[in-house]
Amino acid sequence: MSTLRSVRRPVFPRRPALALVGGTALLGTVAAGLIGAAPAQAVAWPDKITNVSIVSSSPGTFTVRWSQSGKNTTGYRLETGLNPFSKTNSQMPYTGRHSHVFLIDKNARSFTFSASQLAAAGAPFGSGNQVYFRLSALNNTRTGTQARNWAYLQAGIPQAPSYRGETVRIGTFNVRTATGAGRAWPSRVVDVAKQLRYYNAEVYALQELNVGRADGKSGSLNGTQRQTQSLVSQLKRTGAGKYRLVRTTPYVSPDAKVNTQGERILYDSTRIRLLSNCPDTQPRHGWNSSCSIRLPIRSNDPSTMTRFAGYAKFQDKTTGKQFWFVSVHLDDRHTGSAANQRSLNALRGAQIAKVQSVINGLNTQHLPVIIAGDYNAWQNDRAGDASHDALVSAGYTDSYAASKVVRGQYATFNDFATTVKPGVNNFGTRLDKIMFRGFTGSATWNNVVKVTDTRRASDHNLVVSDLVY
């Protein structure tokens, strides 16, 4: 499967072009007449651009190609952003996040992004970010500038090399809490266990696998299983008794007012050795804070918004290689207020910074690190993707930057919809991510989802990636 994708997206009709005269934007001769000046000489329209396409070039980049006669054209402008943007649709931002403009010679009919140009566009190779772009033909004259836009917003992503070598399969799966609406957990756990067994990852990051009752009822256990324990039991019944949870009990005392403790780690005990000491309980208490990270909340948030991350150090029994692993579930709040969205985006950035700080302190041997889970943030969010950006800046790679991507056109969450549809420009929204540092690369990335399914295991999809040591 090609890692380069382009789907034309029609936009609303163009606004009348603005001629730039003496640094002032004038709308044709009408504006000139209103200020009592002589009409500016009309600037000729550049000829139309046709056949804009994205082609593979070499690993770490991609090329944009187009056709145009060159008539009335002094050059081209390629405007990029990390989310869709429009000059005519007021429901969309005027420019994309991390907006950048590249000016191209008039004789060119193609543009290949260099590594530095992709970084300037906010999509360095390994970030997993796609580049949204719009191409325009320009006619710059002494009396003004005229631009003719290609009518479609398009998007491309740097091509990944073909990675080879010893791999470890990693998965992340928000299995949805037992107390949520929809199919009850005792029914869904059967399907969750089947998927986990079938895709056979060495380590899974799980979210919303909570420590409350598996039947979803509130109150004390009264002899019933926890949701965590019920998954382990079902895996045994499914023939996957090799899987173990690093922790099955609460991270805090029962009277603590916190949000979710569902950030758990499941590993294949026949292929992976747990090196961390992560006891489930402590003397006279049925809980323990071992191998957990309390994530920050905003100063005005109640303690009930507190979340955790689970972590552990592992060793691959086949290769002997060791690595740190973290399961995260960042703040899930999103609102219609732009200011609040920015605040919550910053919070998710602070939560991932806390995870990095703790793991960096533990990782004195500078071993590889995997931080996987439900980030509750995505590239197309106008407010930003602070948690992802912070990890990329710290040298982490998004496993989506893989040699082979499977079903990347669909979102990683399905909301229990019977049918799912491709995302904007054929890129799906990715809330669920596997970020890594210290591995060679990602050989495969697989979004496990059926287009039509009346029996979804969760409102998120299982995401699996093969990382090359």
Automatic annotation (TrEMBL):
InterPro entries: Endo/exonu/phosph_ase_sf, Endo/exonuclease/phosphatase, TAT_signal. PROSITE patterns: TAT. GO terms for molecular function: endonuclease activity; exonuclease activity. This is Endonuclease/exonuclease/phosphatase family metal-dependent hydrolase. SUPFAM superfamilies: DNase I-like. Gene3D superfamilies: Endonuclease/exonuclease/phosphatase. Keywords: Endonuclease, Exonuclease, Hydrolase, Nuclease.
